[in-house]
Amino acid sequence: MPNPLLGVFFHWLGGLASGSFYVPYRGVKNWAWETYWLAGGFFSWIIAPWVLALALGTDPVAVLSEAPTSTLFWSYFFGVLWGLGGLTFGLTMRYLGMSLGMAVALGYCAAFGTLMPPIFKGEFFTKVVGTTSGNAVLIGIAVCVIGIAIAGLAGVNKEREMPDEEKKVAIKEFNLRKGLLVATFSGVMSACFSYGLAAGAPIKLIALAHGSGTLWQGLPVLIVVLLGGFTTNCIWCVLLNVRNRTGYQYFAKTLRNALPRREDETIIETAIDAPSQEMVEQLKHDPLNGRVPLLGNWLFSALAGVTWYFQFFFYSMGESQMGSYAFSSWTLHMASIIIFSTLWGIFFKEWKGSSGRTKSLLGTALALLILSTMIVGYGNYLAANATY
Questions:
Q1: How far is residue 378's CA from residue 16's CA, in Å, rounded to a whole number?
Q2: Distances (CA, A) of 384 to 49, 96, 133, 322, 378
Q3: Which of 388, 346, 380 is nearest to 127 (CA)?
């Protein structure tokens, strides 16, 4: 029998992992973004998915070899699209600013990533709308989106309260029309991760048939979806390595030239990555006289990458406990990401100096996001008890 309350707890753990994964990158010194992002990505998208799937007995080689070709293709394809969404996320920040851009993109990502899978399957109007449990889930989704909007408003207020010089740095090319168009594309493409997980549902059944535990059934699916994301990220990072002449950094103990500036760089970060970006801003030259702590950089990148993967490790566990409304897992995930990344932001004093009104808005947003996870969990609890 599904246990939605346990599922909500797993999604909180996933949100904690997603909101925290950038912290180890603060220990990386004298590496360009594309270098540490791809180094960590090998652990996020390739190594961790395989190691944990094998360690927990899901027999991923046998499971994936039996999966229909169409299932593998669509899971991989949506992973690629999720990566493409990241190419435009940076433009969203450029045209709308960090806070407004993130709020718009996250709002689209939460709504589309949650609602499109059941609509596409034809289950939205038959299993969700009109039922007490389904209506509770929809209310929870609405509360989550409202919480995201208020968090964005708090961020906009914080940016307005900056000194004029900092405002110019924060939003150099503000363009509402362009920003909204790009944010829409980025948010919808970022939601494709959810579509990839939904497309991989037959793989879960095969995993269960091979004796996989219920909690681990989604791990082989992650291997395929993340391979798609790896493809996009790897291609772009290698292109940046070539253009910026930073490819040598993976194995060099000293810098050969200055780190490339990031102001005009397109950085791949989707709506499920970027809430933590403010904690890093950019890696500056460290007073190491051009020396690179190579082992330390790899260890910190590996730790960041594995932490990033754990968001979906716990996501797959949480989804397995949500019963007939498993699609609502995406809202729980998005809300949890914002909750924990915001708490990290408070810890690192990003909101220091903000007005009382701005802090009140931030507190309201956090309260609504926490409430949304409880409401969605309650809706799933009602559905589970009605079914069993």
A1: 21
A2: 29, 41, 9, 8, 10
A3: 380
Q: Please give the Cα distance from 218 to 226 (Å, whole number).
A: 12
What is the per-residue pLDDT across 3-14, written as a single tens digit (0 to 9) for each? 888 888 998 999
Using an 8 Å Cβ cutoff, are 132 and 76 in contact?
Answer: no
Q: What's the DSSP call for residue 325?
A: G
- 145: Cα within 13 Å, side-chain hemisphere: 19
* Contacts for 62 with CB less than 8 Å, ≥ 6 apart: 210
Q: What are the sequence ranges of the domains in the chain?
A: 4-387
Query: What gap in Å lies between CA 78 and CA 236, rounded to an integer?
Result: 17
How many C-beta atoms surround the C-beta of residue 84 within 10 A? 20
Closest to 297 (Cα-Cα) out of 287, 283, 307? 283
Angle, nearest 10°, between helix axes 69-96 and 192-199?
170
CA dihedral 324, 114, 275, 303 (to 10 degrees): 40
In this structure, what token pair is assigned to residue 130? 């009109």
Contact 135/76 with Cβ under 8 angstroms? no
Q: What is the pLDDT of residues 266-296, one digit of tens each?
A: 566 665 665 545 444 544 445 566 788 999 9
**What is residue 291's three-state secondary structure?**
strand
pLDDT digits (tens, 9 = 90+) for 114-166: 888 888 777 777 777 878 888 888 898 889 889 888 887 887 787 777 665 55
Determine the residue type at 341: S
Closest to 174 measured CA to CA, from 272, 94, 284, 90 = 94
Q: Which two tokens stand for residue 240?
A: 């940046």
Q: Cβ-count burial of 352 within 10 angstroms (0-12 exposed, 13-18 middle, 19+ buried)?
A: exposed
**Cβ 157 vs Cβ 79: under 8 Å:** no
Residues 110/47/221/370 CA torsion (nearest 10 deg):
-30
Angle subtended by helix axes 4-20 and 329-347, to nearest 10: 40
The label of the residue with tokens 């950038």 reads 22
**pTM of the predicted model as reported, rounded to 2 decimal places:** 0.83
Q: Give the helix/strand (H/E) hosting 274.
A: none
**Do residues 304 and 330 make contact, with C-beta atoms less than 8 angstroms apart?**
no
User: At residue 254, what are phi and psi to the nearest 5 degrees?
Assistant: -140, 150
In the chain, what's the furthest Cα-to-Cα distance?
66
Residue 317: per-residue pLDDT: 92
